[in-house]
Amino acid sequence: MNHSYRVVGALLLSLAASFAVQAQETFRIGFVNPDRVLREAQPAKAAQAKLESEFLKRERDLTAQGEALKAASEKFEREAPTLPESQRTQRQRALVDQDREFQRKRREFQEDLNARKNEELQQVYDRANRVVKQVAEAEKYDAILQEAIYINPKHDITEKVIKALNASSAAPAATNGGK
């Protein structure tokens, strides 16, 4: 009786090992580095360039306003000791109001920039996720990870995703240019 348990146990162990080896051979896992995709993929670069051009004028205006405010503040500091009290108070209030307005505009600029950046990045993420899914299906991956503490470089498909994303963004430009 003891012998038959050993035989059944050995058979079950052999069968389990066989399933483990078979599962290990058929389960394909890949890894995509989303930060690298956002740095290197053409759609991400195009989105960044679009944002820069869209907000460049406002940024320059804010920079000029900030420099003018700084110059006015420095001028006030130099002239304050010689100004009458009423004029000094009036100019100080005007500087405080200008600074408050400048801070408000800067905050609005940052909020607008962040909102647009999120919109553009979401579009890039959506396109990248579609490409990841296409690569995964074409190459028969069972799972694609975007975050991991460690990943063997042989499982990193980021370069394939970037190339496919670049190709997919170049294709519409080529077809639109020919019309």
Low-confidence stretches: 173-179
- Give the overall silhouette: rod-shaped
How many strand units?
2
| DSSP helix fraction | over 70%
Rg on CA atoms, Å: 31 Å
Query: Main β-sheet: number of strands, strand sense, barrel status?
Result: 2 strands, parallel
The secondary-structure element order is HEHHHEH
Strand content: under 5%
Query: What is the typical, i.e. mean, pLDDT?
Result: 85
What structural class do you assign from the helix and strand content? Answer: mainly alpha
Number of helices: 5
Distance between the termini: 82 Å
Widest sheet, order of strands: 1-2
What's the SSE blueprint?
Elements: H1 2-26, E1 29-31, H2 34-40, H3 42-79, H4 85-138, E2 143-145, H5 158-177
Parallel strand pairs: 1-2
Helix pairs in contact: 2-3, 2-5, 3-4, 4-5
Short recap of the structure:
By secondary structure, the protein is mainly alpha-helical. It is built from five helices and two strands.
Features:
179 residues, mainly alpha, two-stranded parallel sheet, rod-shaped, disordered C terminus
Structure write-up:
- The protein is mainly alpha-helical.
- 80% of the residues lie in helices and 3% in strands.
- It is built from five helices and two strands.
- A two-stranded parallel sheet has the order 1-2.
- Helix 2 packs across helix 3 and helix 2 runs parallel beside helix 5.
- The longest helix has 54 residues, at 85-138.
- The protein is rod-shaped, with a radius of gyration of 31 Å.
- The model is unreliable at 173-179 (pLDDT under 50).
